[in-house]
């Protein structure tokens, strides 16, 4: 079925807008591809260094044959539960490549921080910039110019976007992203959230809170709520960079291992030496990014991807905007309820039919481009199939055509709501976004007086003192990328949730981020331009009446002569040092606005 005209219209305008970027990008990709397998251009001395650490088989395969050599970029570390399984992947990939006649080498490692550890702490001010560092580090690994294909091992928040930026930059190299899967279900997410609120009220102590958190985050694998990490995995399927059905298979299972082996074999099949050469620059075209945005809306994914998609696309020579996302949101149905949008976790979502059911539904309704290149072959219909393992052999079979649980997953013709889970907010404060899929309809419109803060700790102190026990829109400014790296303000969710449960009308407005765990409190986030850039948020005063309307997409200060007010300033010197922040001064000085992807590498208006 052809794609609907509304989707095609957005795609067409992205294509037209991107021509000055995309055409030179594709030209560079073709010139690099015409040079043939990269290592043929290496001198004997260069090649000796490439293979010095290899065993005899790999030395011969890399030096004297046309067998593919895979460069592995890994984000493994022991801190992230999601990345712990990657410890054993390189050896599995090497063994599989050898059995297929090729070779594989770890080309480089990239940093991978856990936002769950740094929430509300100074380290969070490095989080967003770590995306660009990851792209740079991956680029260093691939710069050895000795690889016919690349496999990227990464899952969590800024890591996948950073790796995609690197992959797109090395556009002529076929690239496959390899997930590790979510941890098995632990303490239900709604119970965890309730425990956090009880702690915020002072009803329980730290010991009880810690027990609940550890029962939720309990083993290797991705956290099971639908935050940025799992949204990243969805995105890699919708954009054709995962093998079909790979995203949500649990770690340490036979199927998980078989999928990693199959990804290795596929990487060797799509090199320039074979008959299915699939450079990643052709996979990541305008239609792929539109499909990614559609997946984000249909699943109610993380607000962080609104930033990352813009930056990722720019690395692919493509210019997308929040306006594109907003127009797609108006026509894409919300088909999934996964925490924080519902009670289910990603394991339950996967069991109910998961991405294969959802993609199939969107294709049937003409709401997804099928005519795309993917690492699995031509066409998005490959991603309606799910992997199965029989007698140790993996194959793909038709995925479900009916939801296994309509409280978790619904057809596109009878969705949870007719529009997507993310909404663009515009008005005299600039441009922001709100995740409406997690907010009850009766709480999507808030009009209340402002209380202005310049940091999270001041908000928490005011909450503890009872100063926020009223209808209030909490404004937290000087949290943008130029001010302090745009940290997530997720630690504000429990106290604001307590106020909401008391019956007050509560919302948050900020030029910072609220993370993939944005929940039941309406939050206008990523406000651009930011306060440190002289944005209108710097003009708000305590008591100003603000209207946040997630239904009509407006965010306004209802005050006379608001535009004529002076811009407030803040002492930001404390953001410049401690816990490594000194090293990121250059990033803060050159970073682009949130609406342009908040990137220091590809700053866009």
From TrEMBL:
GO BP terms in the entry: D-gluconate metabolic process; Entner-Doudoroff pathway through 6-phosphogluconate
Required cofactor(s): [4Fe-4S] cluster
GO molecular function terms listed in the Swiss-Prot or TrEMBL record: 4 iron, 4 sulfur cluster binding; metal ion binding; phosphogluconate dehydratase activity; thiosulfate-cyanide sulfurtransferase activity
Note describing how the cofactor binds: Binds 1 [4Fe-4S] cluster.
Occurrences of domain Dihydroxy-acid/6-phosphogluconate dehydratase C-terminal (ranges): 408-598
Pfam families hit by this protein: ILV_EDD_C, ILVD_EDD_N
InterPro entries attached to this UniProt entry: 6-phosphgluc_deHydtase, Dihydro-acid_dehy_C, DiOHA_6PGluconate_deHydtase_CS, ILV_EDD_C, ILV_EDD_N, IlvD/EDD_N, Thiosulphate_STrfase_CS
Gene3D superfamilies to which the protein is assigned, alphabetical: IlvD/EDD C-terminal domain-like
Record EC number: 4.2.1.12
Gene Ontology CC, one term: cytosol
Source superkingdom: Bacteria
Residues given in the record as [4Fe-4S] cluster binding sites: 156, 223
Catalytically driven reaction(s): 6-phospho-D-gluconate = 2-dehydro-3-deoxy-6-phospho-D-gluconate + H2O
Pathway in which the depicted protein is active: Carbohydrate metabolism; Entner-Doudoroff pathway
Entry keyword set: 4Fe-4S, Carbohydrate metabolism, Gluconate utilization, Iron, Iron-sulfur, Lyase, Metal-binding
Domain Dihydroxy-acid/6-phosphogluconate dehydratase N-terminal: 69-381
Biological function: Catalyzes the dehydration of 6-phospho-D-gluconate to 2-dehydro-3-deoxy-6-phospho-D-gluconate.
Membership in a protein family: Belongs to the IlvD/Edd family.
Record protein name field: Phosphogluconate dehydratase
